[in-house]
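Shape matters. As here.
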Amino acid sequence: MNLLCVLMPAIMLGLAGCSSGGAETMRAERVTEATKIADVVNNPAFGDYGRMIFPLNEYYYSGDTLGTLRLTWYSYINPSRTVDVINYMLDEVHEGRKIFYPIYPDDDPRAKSTGLFFFRGNRGAKFAVCNAGGGFVYVGAIHDSFPHALELSRRGYNAFALIYRPGYETACEDLARAIAFIHDNAAELGVDAEGYSLWGGSAGARMSAWLGAYGTESFGEKSYPRPSAVIMQYTGLNDVTGNEPPTYACVGTSDRIASYRSMRSYVDRIKANGTDAMIEIFTGLPHGFGLGEGTIAEGWLNNAVKFWEKHQ
């Protein structure tokens, strides 16, 4: 009897076992609301940057699983969205795609607490940089920028979520560096560097507005093109320079940190200078509602994308 015929059943059984094991491995990689935050941070798939997925300062979040995660100053944290973001990241890594880019050299101390998470859209599409808030003391990316970036990527846009150093000045310096990095590496990243947008919530909204008005040259970089639009959520920024890009804003009436009246006045003054601007005000919503899923604000991101597209 042919030796191959003798061995074939064993070979096929072995292959089936490998296939089954592979499937189990892939299933094991999927996270759920019961997955511990520590297991995500220490997942080998994420390497050294796993610690940046959640706030580096543990004082500003609580809960030990994805389903129990809470962030200081934030509301309407959606556990299923948190799980969606992490599983997307794992899928990208398993497909061999790079999802994290340092913006400073490895030997630069700033590299330890900064970087860009890349949520890919269509190659050659325009890009957005999303900046989470956190009172300039931490970065609430898991709720305030990762979900936004993921949704933009699903609409075909390339989106980056910035992890920056706490502090007004350092945060803006890191955003300026990120803008410079993306422009300098646009071909490698596969993005269209023209007509980009800056997005942000709370402190991240201030960063986006400041870079839009003052430019990268005001924060330690050479001059790069300014954004075609700024998309900002729930921030108490009041200063209007007259150099603001077209600006979309949204906020809730029950926000005790960022007054909706103040934001409406800010938008009105931008419009008075001849620049397009709009605001959506959501009755009853508090600070930090993120995508607003399951609330009166759900769908605001669609309106923000249309506003950006109008000005590309």
Notes: Confidence is low (pLDDT under 50) at residues 1-28. The domain at 36-310 is CATH 3.40.50.1820 (Rossmann fold). The CA atoms of residues 44 and 262 lie 45 Å apart. Residues 3-29 form the longest helix (27 residues).
